[in-house]
Amino acid sequence: MTATTMPAAPAGHQSLNLRGQTLRTPVLGAIAVGAVALTALLYLVTSIHSRIQFVLIVLLLFSIGQTVASVLVEGARRARDRLVTTLVYGSFLLALIPLVAVLVAVIERGAKRLDMDFLTHSMRGIGARDAGGGIYHAIIGTLEQVGLASLMAVPFGLLVAVYLVEYGTGRISRVISFFVDVLTGLPSIIAGLFVLGFWILALGQPFTGFAGSLALTILMVPVVVRSAEEMLKLVPDELREASYALGVARWRTILKIVVPTALPGIVTGVMLAVARVAGETAPLLLTVFGDNSINMNPFDGEQSALPLYIYSQAGQPQQVAIDRAWAAALTLIIIIMLLNLIARFVASRAKVK
Amino acid sequence: MATRIEISGLTAYYGKFKAVADVNLTIEPKSVTAFIGPSGCGKSTVLRTLNRMHEVLPGARVEGKVLLDGEDLYGPGVDPVNVRRNVGMVFQRPNPFPTMSIYENVIAGLKLNGVRKKSLLDERVEESLKGANLWDEVKDRLNRPGAGLSGGQQQRLCIARAIAVEPQVLLMDEPCSALDPISTLAIEDLIQKLRSSYTIVIVTHNMQQASRVSETTAFFSLEKTGDPGRLVEYSTTSQIFSNPKEKRTEDYISGRFG
Ligand SMILES: Nc1ncnc2c1ncn2[C@@H]1O[C@H](COP(=O)(O)OP(=O)(O)OP(=O)(O)O)[C@@H](O)[C@H]1O
Ligand SMILES: [Mg+2]
Q: What is any one of the record's Gene Ontology cellular component terms (chain B) (predicted)?
């Protein structure tokens, strides 16, 4: 025995009992198998046959079985812990189901038609029953319309957010905040109707890609403002004060300290906004109009766009058109994912390593 | 290159709340002055009026005069940005800029004020980091993030950042309160080194620290919560700690209240 050994607990001292009992993995496995078996039995004798319900019932039975076993072996506190853990993981898996299902469905059906030929041709001269055709014109349209909308909405939205966080006090900023909230809830077709009524009908402008990007801008601005505002608010005041204390003017502090600190979050918010408007159909329907041939110029003449293309193709009875719609949907998802990756890459380059 | 600070009739408000009232004191050039007193008596507030950081908070305002070599900081036409270039500040919690490397942190003040010349910047980084006793620890990793340093190193980085713009006066608000004894010692050594070129004002809750680093001490206190804080006694540090004139100073020093 060394000198550092603790003296033995005095006689009669109650053991601390730090270990407690634990449910063993085989027991949990048995409960899981039991839950599946019971559910299968239920499916045999009753007329339920939904796959989602199967998963839910298994989950429910497993939680019940686990809780009962745990109360018996481990005690109530551990049982509660296990129950909540199961619920949290279960909800996570449930939330994944629609996401995975959508992705699988789109990839399964979209991959069929998605090839170079499809990406580099327009629908010009393709008849209703023809198998060929492509989405080149729609990709051009979407990129230009969303690009123009971002060019207008992102700087404007950022400036508004900077105003609200750094300068805004009192009534003006409350009024702006209110309008941003109203805009956030604006149904997208209203944005389209507004551009149609104001820009196209009242001012006599033609249907163009630019008219579409105006409508998209209206939808993007509130998303950019709200997310940038939240991110700017997270920048601690200590950093602003540190900068002021160095004799740096306020606007430079905002430009060089506050915005860079919030940049990764702002980029994420902007990407959310881009992703949101890239999939908008209704406002484009009223402003861009849709066209089957390639039009590179967003300021002159009708254009197409991926959501419009999907909408018009999916509405047709021929299988060839429906296949084209799926392939276009897959393309849209890929484009948004690529934009996201690029934006994240750019934002991460701005950080010190 | 150091500057005399004369504070007269200084009263500071947060909105309607009068935080400190009627402070008068003169701080000699190239000296270290300690502000001590119980929590909430307005030490930080007075300190922040010396580089016009007080008014950064909404609703905060100041009455009275602060003369820097005879010129009133609160006079008409004075630009707070220019004031702060001459009066640097180190905060209680180390606050390096998280998006910047160690190198960029040190020259942030210069760079943000438009200095571009690489040779000058390089020189100033080495000078300031050496001045802040940090050079040896970081010279091999100047391009790593400033936020990756230990708390004590971060605080010395912030001091380097403050002295890189070559201010006349250096204000420190409890610069050691988040640090371990070794880092505290490093900072106290640093203050000894800096006193030859700067006028330094330091707020501290640590009486030993005040007696170790400062030659003059100002004791602030307040009657009861809700009242404004006031300057109770201002004298040489040895006088304050060995033979204070005021009963309240003595009580505070000897730990009988506060
Ligand atoms: N941002 C603020 N808004 C409103 N009141 C404030 C603010 N900062 C400080 N005060 C008040 O002003 C008074 C003086 O505060 P100050 O921070 O100067 O005290 P202090 O002496 O530095 O205290 P400590 O030693 O705890 O740092 C306190 O009553 C405090 O509640
Ligand atoms: Mg304080």
A: membrane
Mapped onto helix, strand or coil, the DSSP state of residue B50 is: coil
Using a CB–CB cutoff of 8 Å, tell me whether A244 touches chain B. yes
Half-sphere exposure of A99 (CA within 13 A, CB side): 5
Domains of chain B: 3-94+168-252 (3.40.50.300)
Residue type at A79? Answer: A
The answer, yes or no, to whether residue A28 has pLDDT greater than 80, is yes
Q: pLDDT by residue (tens digit) across A70-87? A: 888 888 888 899 999 999
Given a cut of 70, is residue A110 above it in pLDDT? yes
- The neighbouring-strand residues paired with B216 are B33, B236
Alpha-carbon span B217 to B215, nearest angstrom: 7
From A247, A257, A261, residue closest to B85, measured CB to CB? A247
Q: Which amino acid is at A329?
A: A
Measured CA distances, A240 to A229, A252, A258, B170 (Å)? 16, 10, 7, 18
Q: Apex CA A38: angle with CA A36 and CA A43, to 5°?
A: 95
Task: From chain B, pick out residues whose CB is under 8 angstroms from the CB of A248.
Answer: 81, 108-109, 112-113
Burial of B205 (0-12, 13-18, 19+ CB in 10 A): middle
Please list the residues that pair with B11 across neighbouring strands: B63
Whether A26 contacts A81, CB under 8 Å? no
Give the DSSP H or E segment for A68: helix A51-73
Which string of DSSP letters, residue by residue, matches A246-311? TT--HHHHIIIIIHHHHHHHHHHHHHHHHHHHHT--HHHHHHTB--SS----TTSS-B--HHHHHH
SS3 (DSSP) at B60: strand
Ligand 2 geometric centre to CA of B44 (Å): 4
Quote the CA–CA distance of B241 and B206 in Å, as a whole number: 13
Mean of the per-residue pLDDT values of chain A: 89
Amino acid occupying residue A88: V
Interfacial residues of B (vs A; Cβ cutoff 8 Å)? 51, 53, 56, 58, 81-86, 88-89, 91, 93, 95, 97-101, 104, 108-109, 112-113, 143-145, 158, 161-162, 165
Give the burial class of B196: count Cβ atoms within 10 A of its Cβ; 0-12 exposed, 13-18 middle, 19 or more buried.
exposed
pTM across the whole model? 0.82
Please name the residue whose Cα sits nearest to atom 24 of ligand 1.
Answer: B39
Report ipTM (2 d.p.). Answer: 0.91
Mind telling me how many Å the CA of B212 is from chain A's nearest CA?
26
Angle B1-B4-B10 (CA atoms, 0-180°, nearest 5)? Answer: 145
Which residue ranges of chain B lie beneath pLDDT 50?
Answer: 1, 258
Dist. CA B63 → ligand 1 center (Å)? 17
Taking the CB of residue B80, how many other CB atoms lie within 10 A of it? 19
Calculate mean pLDDT across residues A292-312.
Answer: 90
